[in-house]
Amino acid sequence: MQKKSHDRSVSNFNTELKLKGFNVFQIEDDSSAVRAYSRKDFYKICLTTGESIINYADRSFEMTGTILFFANPNVPYSWETISRSYVGYTCLFSEDFYKPADRTESLQHSPLFRIGGTPIFHISEEKREFLNGIFKNMMVEQTSNYTFKDDLIRNYINLIIHEALKLQPAENFDQVKNAAHRITNVFLELLERQFPIESKDCPLQLRTAQDYASSLNIHVNYLNKAVKEITGKATTTHISERVVSEARALLLHTDWNVADIAYALGFEYPTYFNNFFKRITGTNPMSLRPAGA
User: Where is the HTH araC/xylS-type domain (predicted)?
Assistant: First the structure.
């Protein structure tokens, strides 16, 4: 019965996420499970009590007791429950929900959600009771008819974030043997998140291997070595192939001129884009335009 209840909760919060960009729910007692999370658009905060192993980027955390965990949507991770009893709360939210008027700094820059940071905190019993109350309040407001409930929920999220910032992050982690796999997965996830390009006014931000390494808070040589080892391709090859794929889509399915496409894909001048596209594909960008376009 507990498993069925958990499944219903998952279905419900998926629906709520799509509609509102936010959902909070209680974690049922569901031990001996491995959960892999790859959701691309939602941040996550978990307050859990039990014993678990969390594989996050290129590190593995063995956690016992109550922890507070912050997940960045750029970083795929897995969570293995070890103890027979495992309970707590989870809230998921989009960045658009958290900062609807673009009034706050991006969560990507937060020390809690920043890629390369340590997103796990040990929680005392006193603090656990306090945080439990916050999650319970969010669950109540989620189903209320209060006009300004979204603002109130955002305040609760901010309160959790500020409580975590007062704490010392957990450091009992090991570099796992498959670190190259994990960092490669993170890179490929981050690469894919740059697309599709939907506006000429919002050009591609990450263009080079160094850009991705900086965003992931690792040395570019480490990134290049991991990606090459796991995929057999250089980091720059993955980036170039994805940029070309997006260029093809824009040439075929939009009326943007080549200069607009070049700018949207991060090229300073159309000539640079033309040379890049021809070097990778062997043809000129205009050759992909539909007849009469």
Answer: 181-291
**50-76 per-residue burial string, b: 16 or more CB within 10 A, e: under 16:** bbbbbbbbbbbbebeebbbbbbbbbbb
pTM of the shown model: 0.62
> What phi and psi values does residue 241 have, to the nearest 5 degrees?
-65, -40
**Are residues 94 and 27 part of one domain?**
yes
- Say whether 29 sits in a helix, a strand or coil: coil
For tokens 């820059």, name the residue.
109
Q: Please, what sign has the CA dihedral across residues 202, 93, 245, 184?
A: positive
- Quote the tokens at residue 205: 């931000």
Percent of the chain with pLDDT over 70: 78
* Tokens coding 249: 């889509």
**Which residue from 122, 141, 230 is spatially nearest to 183, judged by alpha carbons?**
230
Instruction: Give phi and psi for 111, each to the nearest 5.
Output: -65, -20
CB 273, CB 258: distance < 8 Å: yes
Which ranges of 21-148 does DSSP label H, i.e. alpha helix?
Answer: 95-98, 125-142
Spatial CA neighbour of 229 closest among 261, 277, 183, 283: 183
Residue 293 covered by a domain: no
Spatial neighbors of 154 by CB under 8 A, at least 6 apart, are: 97, 98
Strands (E) across the chain are located at 22-27, 34-37, 43-56, 59-71, 77-81, 87-93, 120-122, 173-175
Boundaries of domain holding 187: 178-288
Q: Are residues 125 and 243 in the same domain?
A: no
123 and 241 in a single domain? The answer is no
- Tokens 């990134």 belong to residue: 223
For the stretch 22-81, pLDDT in tens is 999 998 755 444 554 444 568 899 999 998 888 776 677 888 899 999 988 777 677 888
Torsion of CA 153, 157, 163, 165, to 10 degrees: -150
